[in-house]
Every structure is written in structure tokens, then in C-alpha cells.
Design a protein that fits this description.
This protein is 37% helix and 22% strand. By secondary structure, it is an alpha+beta fold.
Amino acid sequence: MLVREIGEFGVIERLNRMVVGRGEGNEAVRAFPLLVDTGDDTAVWQTGEGRELFTTDTMVEGVHFTRKTTPWRELGWKAIASNISDVASMGGLPTYALITLGLPPETMVSHIEEMYRGMLEIGAEYGMGVVGGDIVRSPVFFVTTALTGVAQRPPLLRSTARPGDAVGVSGWLGSSAGGLRLMLNSEIAEGPDATGEAADFLRNAHRRPAPAVQAGQVLSQKGIETAMDVSDGLVDDLGKLCAASGVAARINASAVPTHPLLRHQFPDECLSLALGGGEDYVLLFTGPPGVVGPLIPQLGEGSAVIGTVVSPEELGGAGRVAVLDDTGRELSLSGGGWDHFEQTGAH
């Protein structure tokens, strides 16, 4: 069996089955009880009165980004942002990062310095420090970030959604994918105009996403138990949340929040970009309707209630997500979501 035959998430599922619960024999591990194992946005363990979070992510040139779409400083920002978003989705605050660089020998030192400027900028913005790392020789450039975080309250999980819960998001969807689409179209001299306010907004949404740390704090403080970040696409990520919780969900297409500038730039594609585009890094969460509804105004622009969690029997199985139009008809979705072993283009 080859990796490409089962895809990224098939590999993850197999490895999860191997490693879950394998740390009990270590005396030091028992002193810091593991609260959240592999399979969520971060691992979490108890440290005294608080909880420590740990996550990691890698960006590979030609797979996750190209130099035409992501300048070096913005690459540094994004390499940290994806990890901060994981911590935010658990209701935590970011603390320290370790950076591993894979460098071809011909890499310009000035480019690496520019990337670190982006890392330091987002670190200053979110109160996080870069404290070390490693450098290795590599045939292709990559950057891996390992990030710690802290949480004072129980972590938000993917596995606690219940039938009857409202489904909410903390901000606009599809803007990052719109920015990437705009830049790729511009490279081949096709598609919408790549200048103006909308183009600037969309490029910035893709290159310098803003992790929803404050929204994660609000959700945690107000008693929400279930959340994850939207990194691989709304429908794809909601499907993962539902699968982890043993439920299904319905989304109202007209309730999915898209920014006016995305609608201006891509009037016919904005919904598909919002449903299938990744790297928005807003929070996707569920909870009782009476709790979720009053929270929406506290989460900032673009936050909305977009659907409902239902029993798996209603939609034919756990993890199933149906997107409905205003008449209640289910829309046909053509792909969407990010799998490293199915996609061929770079971000």
C-alpha cells in the first residue's frame, strides 16, 4: 500500500492508532498527566494549576507555498500563524516557538533573515517568543515550527459536539483562498484584476492571516467545549470535527460569512472558496444554540451561526456534512479541503 492510495488522513489515522496511550511507562510523564492525545489541534498535558499545549507544522516550498505568492517575510509570519491558530482553537495562549530550517546550500542568508523578521513581527503581535531550533541541509527549502502554549481552562476539543448544537465560525471564510486564486490567476495573465482594494485585502488574507486567539479565549470563558481551526477548508474541517464527535452536520449556504471584498472580486466563486478554501484560521465551534447565539457579537466581524449538528443517522454516517440552499436542497460539492497527497499545486 502506498501513501498516495490512502492519503494524508488515512496515514494519520494509522499512526494515531499506533501511538495513543504509549507514554504511561515513563515516570516523568506520569508527573504531567496527558489530557489530550494525538488527533486534536494540539496535545495538552497538566502542569500544576495550568495546562501546557504543544503543536507543530511544516511548510515546504513547492507544496505549501511558492516565492511568487509568499514573500520571505510573509512566509515567516505564516509559519508561526498556523501554529498559533492551533493553540487558539484549544482556548490557549501561545508562548514559545522552536524553528527547524531545511536549507539548500544556495539559499540567500538575507532571505532567511527576512523570514525571521516576519516571525518576530507575529511574535510581538501575539506575545510569543522564538527560543531556538535547528538547521539541516535539504534539497528543498522547508520550515518547521514547534509551538508551546498555555491554557487556564479545560481545552476545547473536536470530540465533544452533540446533536442539536449550533455550528458557529469566528470570522470571514474564503478570503485566503481568494487571495491565492487571485495571485495564481495573475501569474498566467488570466482572471480578475490584481490591483485595487479587494486585491490588496485578499493577498494580505492569504499571506498574513490573523489567528483567532481572542475568539478562543471568549469561547473558553463562556463554556464552549468544542472547537477547531479552519485550516484545510470549512466542509473538510467540519467533517473532521463531526467524525471525532460521532455526529453529522448541516450548513446553511446563505449563512456562510464571506467578506464583501471577496464577493466583489469573485462574485461567482465566493461560496465555493468559503466552503473548500483553507488557511482562513478562523475558529469553527459548536455548542447549545442558547449559548452560541449570544456569543457571536463578541467574536468580531464575520462571525456567524452557520448550521446545526445532527445525529449521524440523519445524514448517513458520522462525519457527513451537508450544505443546503435556501430551499433546503443539498448542494453538490466538487472536492475542497487540503490533502498533501492528493493536491498538486502549491499555495
